[in-house]
Amino acid sequence: MSAIKWTRRQLIGATAVLFASASLPAFADYNPKLLRIGYQKSAATLVLLKGNGTLEKKLAPQGIEVKWVEFPAGPQLLEGLNVGSIDFGYVGETPPIVAQAAGANFVYVGYEKPAPQAEAILVPKDSPIKTVADLKGKKVALNKGSNVHYLLVKALEKAGLKYADVTVNFLTPADARAAFERAAIDAWVIWDPFTAAAEKQTGARVLTNAVGVANNHQFFLAEREFATKRPDLTKLLFDEVSTQGAWVEKNIKAAAAQLSPIQGLPAEVIELSLSRYPQGVHPLEDSVLDAQQKIADTFAELKLIPAPIRVKDATLGAKRLAANP
Asked: What is the pTM of this model?
């Protein structure tokens, strides 16, 4: 399979192609009395924070309303940041690379420690595929532009294969799970809690996770104007995320029980997923941004983004550059 080139229009429009049913709120100018947080249902800490309402209580005296906007995956959330429908969000390491290449107006504001055990390449329990090298010529599914896109590239490289040695099918997690169960694909590259669900419910076998292959950082991002004007809200949000995260780490069973009806997964699946993710938020470090740059350079070499980017341009210390044509 030859490398797929994404134009700027295709990159920014990826949401409409992949999730035609997902609609974004209309563009809105910055509102100092409204904090709009984008989240994914799989983001345990933010889901629990939303549920307990502590952030709303902290901001009520300032007359600030909190609005939570759910997205199906990271690329869609980045599109929300780009069009101004949210101020703040949480995604994996690859969606920001793709979005920055498309000219999206966001900045990195924090990160979580690496979670390499929380993403994996899965094969059916009775699959004859035993190693990553066995994937040569096989059909592999993943969510386009998601964090696992980089995992596949690096895992193949480690096994002596090229990205072009496999046929990549771009499928949403739900569609990929269905294809996986009916054997329409040979392998599925996916993140938790979808990984844990497939392991527990179908007996899926982990061909490899990201340990020794990719970091799998999770990032907190903000719309540039919001991040510049309201660092106080970013700090407050980080304090609440850290408090909630510390509780999750000490109370995984209780957290899983609360999340089960929200995420629509058995508590045991969520427990396994939570055990693979470190909780809490940390200030940006050069080493983390350097790791992001390696992903960006790899994607540029493979023509998975239209042109090279400089990751540090998407930080508060850099001015926004003009979008790539």
From this structure: 0.82
